[in-house]
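Translate sequence into structure tokens.
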Amino acid sequence: MKIDRLLSIVIVLLGRRLVQAKELADMFEVSVRTIYRDIETLSLAGIPVVTYQGGGGGIGLIEGYRLDRNVLTDHELAQIFSALRSLSPYTGDHERLMEKISSVVPPSRSQQFRSIASQQVVDLTPWGLPGASEQKLALLKEALEESVTVSFAYVSAEGTATVRCVEPYTLVMKGQSWYLYGYCRLREDFRLFKLHRMKDLVKGTTVFTRLELSLRDLPWNDYPGDRETLTEVILHFSAKNKRIAEERFDCSELQADGSGGYTVSLNYPVDEWLYGFLLSFGSAAEVLEPQNVRQRLGELAAAIACKYSPAT
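Result follows.
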């Protein structure tokens, strides 16, 4: 992934005065053109990378610039190490970069670093064997690296099916689901696409020029709908099922009911996602309010019970 390569390039340049672009391209298995784009990205980010022309030239850091290794503590390096490890099943092999991060830590503190890095593990992969999502992510990663379009059939949350051609910009994990953020040529605007809703994903050959996007304008930090449509939903968990509530909700969200159980009050959009979420608790949770959600959930539960009832 590009961020891994950028970090690796900085680490290489910190250890060497000059490096040939071709050597970096071979090291990271990309084109020389891609390396020069990376150098431009690093310069825009404030890293003083310069290119020296001539027989003894190459790519290096501006004279006198060196990053003090003490800028990052062992604990902070361990956090970066853990984050890369959590993403590696989805975004490829990070072993080379993780080893470079480990090498920054002096041997005398290596054991402590490894201990800190192993204290927290974030595994985003689902239970079971790798599935279609991993294949889609690998293909989209290639398209992002090459700045080429992708096409796919897409089914919206409302069930509308369309065929999209998209310029991919960013892969986003939000709420335990992967999304693609990119420019949709059909809608002539940027859109967020859920990977699970994509079918027949194909990487194209049309190269596009990436636009500079403001981080303030990215859509996944806010609920995409109208906040006025959010409804207060009150759930109740009996004492028998309190452990389920403790596993799913933060302790600050749980209100003791005086009988050993909990009530939980949260704001949700009333849509199909909400009913699927509520049904995932089975009989462990009861919806107290609002009445329309309670009634609809009862209808869905009755339909499920009917489907699995023995034939009479």
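Note: The chain is about 40% helix and 25% strand.
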